[in-house]
Specification:
32% strand, four-stranded antiparallel sheet, 98 residues
Length: 98
Amino acid sequence: MSDLPKGSFRLEGHIDVPAERIARVNEALKDHIRLTREEEGWIFFIVDACSDVKGRFLVSEAFVDEAAFGAHQVRVGASPWVEASKDVPREYKAWVVV
């Protein structure tokens, strides 16, 4: 998505959910996606199951700027998503679009 405005904040990566936690994470993820898409400043927020690695969810998100992403992080910190995905391995790359 290279057509994003300069200054946009991007994050890409994945989370690897253990088999015994898939149902709980899937349930919490529905609300997490809905709430994120209601936030001011989100451009897109996509979380999809990976077809190649069982339990892996691919994450791709963009916000209008780093401040909007920061507000997202604050909201997430007080949400059920935090508990559902606690200690789930994550690997992300984040950057500001130049």
